[in-house]
Write a structure and sequence with these properties.
Order of helices and strands of chain A: EEEEEEHEEHHHHH
Structural class of chain A: alpha+beta
Largest sheet of chain A: 4 strands, antiparallel
CATH class of one domain in chain A: Mainly Beta
Oligomer: homodimer
Strand order of the largest sheet of chain A: 1-8-3-6
Distance between the termini of chain A: 46 Å
Helix content of chain A: 25-40%
Shape of chain A: globular
Number of strands of chain A: 8
Chain lengths: 163, 163
DNA sequence: GTTCGACGTTCATCTAGATTAATAAATCTT
DNA sequence: AAGATTTATTAATCTAGATGAACGTCGAAC
């Protein structure tokens, strides 16, 4: 485990990096995203203070990650090179309880996001985002929120214009 | 905990049912889905033998579920009325390990699904589905696969027609 | 302060997929 | 097996949102 200070705009992880990393954000704001074959970015998640980033799919399939991770603000982060949960040393029952709680909340978030992507219009997604992450709205460029919602920056701009 | 035998087509859970249930599928195939305001169904997940169904979002927010659950095949299921993980009696370390592994795999699946919904075309989604769930393809009506993928049944039929 | 690149907005066009509807095929019921 | 119900296919039309491009705005770097 190492503590790192990263600057706004700095890339912390490139796809196919060697190690499966888990990143805990102590201060600042990170972004985890993919870039498709046409070069377009799709934000998987934002991680402000207290959040944890990791690529569960890569860990479970024991492969390298397809995700980029970069800093949206100057940040202070902790990087663990081991997998989450089962690869952690079995210390206290309290720790595994914490892990289960963390994972449960993550699943709840992903579940809500999937229902949103399946059944909401662009406008509804944005309104939901405002309610769910009021703090993040003012900390990230609008175009990143757009790709988090699964729409283009232009479409989001239009939606906001109408209000 | 109770064991239940359910028939094909039978609805196991309606939205706003009283209790947060966790359902383990011993045999058969279930479906978990939402119905939007226009009456359209959106499949959140399929659960064949060995899979577990639960609404983490409802459990975490301590509210009733918005999901329907029904049986696609005659099935044998176990229903637990307690929450997953933290609400389970702390028995063995082995059990919590199992829980963490289960949740990790669920997160990996949801993560992959989100990337798919954000960045794949309808055709790419279907092709990916065929690779990931070859067994399920022949067990569920095509229209359900369509709404799992976030497209209309007509669009999926067209995609298959071209091939 | 000026320059430059990133960001947001606006608009004109295009298109993947939705919608609607009609038909055909498969499945269930008795 | 005949009818009824559900599911899949096909086709014509429509639309939310994508695409591409131009322009104004802002903050960072010099």
């Amino acid at each position: 485990m190492k503590i790192l200070r990263v600057k706004k705009g700095e890339i912390i992880q490139l796809p196919n990096a060697l190690k499966h990393n888990i990143i805990f954000v102590k201060k600042g704001l990170l972004r985890m995203y993919v870039v498709d074959d046409k070069g377009k970015e799709h934000v998987y998640m934002f991680a402000p203070e207290g959040w944890t980033l990791s690529d569960f799919s890569a860990i479970k399939e024991n492969r390298t990650s397809n995700f980029f991770i970069d800093a949206i603000e100057n940040s202070l982060i902790e990087i663990f090179s081991k997998g989450l949960g089962e690869e952690l040393p079995k210390t206290t029952m309290e720790l595994t309880d914490q892990t289960i709680d963390l994972m449960g909340r993550r699943i709840a978030t992903l579940q809500d996001r999937i229902i949103m992507l399946l059944s909401y219009t662009a406008k509804e997604r944005y309104q939901q985002f405002l309610l769910t992450y009021p703090d993040i709205v003012n900390r990230v460029p609008q175009k990143m929120i757009a790709t988090y919602l699964g729409v283009t920056p232009q479409a989001l701009s239009k939606i906001r214009g109408l209000k």
